[in-house]
Amino acid sequence: MKISLISPAPPFHGGIVTSAAYVVKHLLSRDHDVQWISLKKQYPKIIFPGTSQTSDVAQWMQMPNEPVIVPWLPWTWFSAAKLIKKNKPDAVFIKYWLPYFAPAFGTIARLCKRAGLPVYFILDNVIAHEKYPFAKQLTRYALSPGDGFIAQSDQVRSDLLSEVPSVAPGSVVTVPLPVFDFGIPGRERKTKSNARAELGISNTCKVVLFFGFIKAYKGLEYLIDAAPMLQGKFGNNIKVLIVGDIYGDKKPYLDRIAESSASDIIQLVDGYMPDEIVEDYFVASDLVALPYVSATQSGIVQIAMNYDLPVVSTTVGGLPEVVDHGRTGFLVPPKNSESLGEAIIKFFDDDLAEKFSSAVAVEKEKYSWDRMCEAIEKLASVNE
Questions:
Q1: Most buried residue among 4, 78, 150, 383 by CB atoms closer than 10 A?
Q2: 172-174, strands of its sheet edge to edge
Q3: Residues 166, 200: one domain?
Q4: 301-316 pLDDT, tens digit each
């Protein structure tokens, strides 16, 4: 089967790029011909709040792609459509997660449709995490040409049907975001002891990990504010490990940590982490915290699953779909540092690590890339 995929690709980095690379990798392993149409540029520097948009990503992700699209240059959209039409794929799939890309992706979708090509969307989000001008109108423009949709949570499916009324419910299939493995192929996974030695963390220390791009909607301040409770219970034998690239102004986070009475147990590792290092932080940790104030889903849960790590998460968006309260982790109300702290304390006090990790190991079998590929194959074969 011949498939064209539109999404960012390396050297851009982040969860969207990684998940797209997994899709390409697994489709290729299933003997499909994949054309990966990617971005030549992603965001203008003037509006990009992070440290860097690109990095040296893992070797396995560096598969052939055609970097053509510049979101603010319309003629590149036509060039992308021309390449796709020349390829004559059985179907076109577009990764969608942000209204910023709607003009480009919506136009390319329409150009492909005019050429008689079926167009499908893989939806990480329908409603953006942050406020975006004309978000609803842009989202409708992008998604209304779709012949079908893969929603990566029930929440995303619900958002699609409410935001884009023209979409028929029967055209939407829900396939949860699969598990992410950041290990390097052929490299044996480190033991927890070895990973901690690399990071300078004691083997007896309890480690709570916050990982990923640090953005306002992720509610990091509530985890920072829970730290005094944790220190009050466990002294300095617990560490709140914050790892990620801070988007926007760093000062509020740095000040909040510095002013915390528990600053001794908070460690901030600011910056984008290369793929070969990501695994160390997860292997070294006992529990992953997602204190989000809004979200439709989070790939961090799927990374945690890969390492059999339990998660304490807020009840926002689609997160309760992937965290089984009392079995694979805990769910707490958003914007509530006390509830977050109590859940973390209960996890360690009740010695739930082994019990929860065993449940995660079973649960993660549901989140396979084969299932994602099967959904893509089913949609692509409709018009054969």
A1: 4
A2: 66-69, 33-39, 2-6, 91-96, 119-123, 148-151, 172-174
A3: no
A4: 999 999 999 999 999 9
Averaged pLDDT for residues 44-70: 80
Task: Dig out the tokens for 233 from the structure.
Answer: 């219970």
Radius of gyration for the alpha carbons in the chain, expressed in angstroms and rounded: 21
Q: Crossing angle of helices 135-143/102-114, nearest 10°? A: 20
| End-to-end CA gap in the chain | 9
Asked if residue 185 belongs to a domain, the reply is no
Q: Would 183 be classed as within a structural domain?
A: no
Confidence tier at 39 by pLDDT (50, 70, 90): very high
Does 186 fall in a domain?
no
288 shares its domain with 344: yes
DSSP letter at 190 equals: P
Average pLDDT for residues 276-293, to the nearest whole number? 94
* Residue 104 belongs to a domain: yes
Residue 19: closest CA among 28, 31, 7: 7
Same domain membership, residue 251 and residue 135? no
The pLDDT value given to residue 183: 65
- Model's pTM, two decimal places? 0.88
33, 74: one domain = yes
Look at the alpha carbons of 48, 183, 361, 21 in this order and tell me if their dihedral is positive or negative: positive
Q: Which residues pair with 239 in a beta bridge?
A: 207
Q: Say yes or no to pLDDT of 108 above 60.
A: yes
15 is written with which tokens?
Answer: 């969860």
Domain extent, residue 301, equals 192-366
Residues 215 and 332 in one domain: yes
Residues in the chain: 384
Note whether 337 and 225 are within 8 A (CB). yes
d(CA 372, CA 30): 12
Which tokens hold the place of 287?
A: 């529990």
CATH number at residue 200: 3.40.50.2000
